[in-house]
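Students often ask why we bother encoding 3D structure as a string. The short answer is that it lets us treat folding as translation between two languages. Here is a chain of 117 residues written in the first language.
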Amino acid sequence: MISKLAPFVIGNSIYIDDTLENLEINFNFLLEMEDLTIVSGIKGNGLSLQHSSSDKDIFKSNLISLNKILMIENEDKNKTFSLKCYKVTKLGTDILKLGDFKSNEKYILNIGNKIKD
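And here it is in the second language, the structure alphabet:
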């Protein structure tokens, strides 16, 4: 079950996207992960995570997912973006460190496109 979830973890979050449902990471599966205390926020319909710049001159933010980095840049240094997500718990993060997982590239690209829009 963890290996099914791992490709969709970015940082300590799983951003809500249609790709999840299409790959059988559906609400029931996520509820099971929450019951095992791997993720949180499922029953509350997720959280909204706001990102701001890590640079003072232009907007820069990096989202790290296992073996991929999504680099976000914009000339507007005051830009922010917000995405709905579920949080990976401390236990979930520790368990994910035990395996050798690869990111789901289609999912990462979809999240990047959401940020662009």
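Translate back mentally: Residues 105-116 form the longest helix (12 residues). Keep this in mind for the problem set.
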